[in-house]
Specification:
The N and C termini lie far apart (about 120 Å). Helix 1 crosses helix 2. This protein is mainly alpha-helical.
Length: about 110
């Protein structure tokens, strides 16, 4: 760090170290990056972020999500566009119901032979 201001190779080394630490300990480096965006320099930000490196590098906030089976083909078919407009379906349903109601109200014709 003392040479990073004057030597470009030292600055590149510092940046490579930060990148490697992001891979190894994303939790601690997240805190470091937040402190840097607040305006702290690299040294002061690392001092304040140092306690976070003592924690687990990849903390989990809860239980892992359950593994679910793939959806069946019928479910994926149901998510596709319906091939008939809803107005056509309603008209067809109304016509079918009307035909059934007229059949049930008609009396059967009897053949009467003398």
């Amino acid at each position: 760090m003392p040479y990073a201001r004057d030597d470009p190779a030292a600055e590149r080394a510092r940046l490579r170290c930060e990148q490697r630490m992001r891979e190894l300990h994303p939790y601690g480096m997240n805190r470091y990056d937040r402190l840097r965006t607040e305006g702290l320099g690299p040294v002061e930000a690392m001092r304040k972020a140092a306690p976070f490196f003592a924690r687990v590098p990849n903390p989990r906030t809860g239980h892992a999500a359950p593994i679910r089976k793939e959806l069946s083909a019928a479910v994926t078919l149901g998510t596709q566009d319906f091939p008939v407009a809803i107005t056509d379906v309603v008209r067809t349903t109304d016509a079918t119901q009307a035909a059934q109601s007229t059949k049930s109200t008609q009396r059967p014709v009897r053949n009467l032979k003398p």
